[in-house]
């Protein structure tokens, strides 16, 4: 069941509490050559504050351009990105999604930085803290070790930036997608799936027991409300994790394979090619 479009005021506090927020990276610098012109298989949100040069993105027949002094916000969809030579950006990659994996925001938006000063101020505060805690780390914040107090400080600064971001896209006319009325038992199962350790076997019978259902009943509920079985949902998340880590980090494919529970890099490569038609290297460099 896809999320429904709804004004934010129609949701309850409990509804919003199911929203997953995750900061993937925050950095500032010149766009390197491999990322200037590429096709990006995206499953996250991006915010680019263009400080020099310009960027044009194309999705289907639609094209958007942002120049120095503007923000570009991209939704979680595959697109072609083309940065001008010497383009410099402040880049924030993140997720705002429901337990089903549907993103809160889908659209691409271009906005003036001068017209939204709170957004830039919050981005600078977040960038300063990230740079101090993780010197030299450009992408892939999630695998980094961090002290508890620094983790919560990062979350607080990210929340402040996210609030400014949402005010900006709402002002541009974006209507967030809201979570559909999911069965509480499905939500309970989704919580367990999102915490699944890829290096341990998945047993649907055990998952169903946490929701007080038989495996068959849970399967039917998942298909009715999400359009896929629990096992298919887990594989979808696994694939998203694999493609995002390959495309947005320098983590070796062998380590990604291990972290995702594969017995070997060759097994991982075969699985990825079967799912996407691409090798790990092709996903990493963004070939179409």
UniProtKB/TrEMBL annotation:
Stored PROSITE patterns: HTH_ARAC_FAMILY_2
Signal peptide bounds: none
InterPro entries: AraC_XylS_family_regulators (IPR050204), Homeodomain-like_sf (IPR009057), HTH_AraC (IPR018060)
Pfam families in the cross-refs: HTH_18
Molecular function via GO: DNA-binding transcription factor activity; sequence-specific DNA binding
Domain HTH araC/xylS-type, chain residue ranges per copy: 187-286
Protein name: Helix-turn-helix transcriptional regulator
Organism name: Rariglobus hedericola
């Amino acid at each position: 069941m896809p999320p429904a479009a709804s004004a934010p005021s129609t949701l309850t506090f409990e509804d919003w509490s199911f929203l997953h927020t995750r900061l993937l990276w925050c950095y500032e610098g010149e766009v390197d050559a491999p990322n200037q012109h590429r096709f990006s298989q995206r499953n996250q949100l991006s915010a680019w504050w263009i400080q020099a040069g310009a960027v044009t993105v194309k999705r289907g027949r639609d094209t958007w351009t942002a120049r120095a002094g503007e923000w570009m916000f991209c939704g979680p969809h595959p697109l072609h990105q083309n940065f001008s030579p010497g383009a410099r950006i402040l880049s924030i990659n993140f997720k705002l999604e429901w337990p089903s994996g549907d993103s809160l925001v889908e659209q691409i938006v271009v906005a003036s930085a001068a017209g939204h000063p709170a957004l830039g101020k919050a981005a600078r505060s977040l960038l300063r803290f990230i740079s101090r805690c993780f010197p030299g780390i450009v992408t892939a914040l999630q695998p980094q070790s961090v002290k508890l107090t620094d983790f919560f400080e990062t979350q607080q600064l990210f929340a402040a930036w996210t609030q400014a971001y949402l005010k900006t896209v709402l002002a541009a006319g974006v209507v967030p997608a809201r979570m559909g009325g999911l069965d509480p038992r499905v939500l309970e199962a989704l919580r367990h799936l999102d915490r699944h350790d890829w290096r341990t076997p998945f047993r649907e019978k055990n998952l169903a027991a946490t929701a007080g259902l038989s495996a068959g009943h849970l399967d039917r509920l998942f298909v009715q409300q999400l359009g896929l079985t629990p096992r298919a949902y887990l594989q979808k998340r696994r694939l998203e994790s694999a493609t995002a880590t390959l495309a947005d980090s320098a983590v070796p494919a062998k380590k990604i394979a291990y972290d995702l529970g594969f017995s070997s890099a060759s097994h991982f490569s075969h699985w990825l090619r079967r799912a996407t038609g691409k090798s790990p290297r092709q996903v990493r460099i963004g070939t179409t």
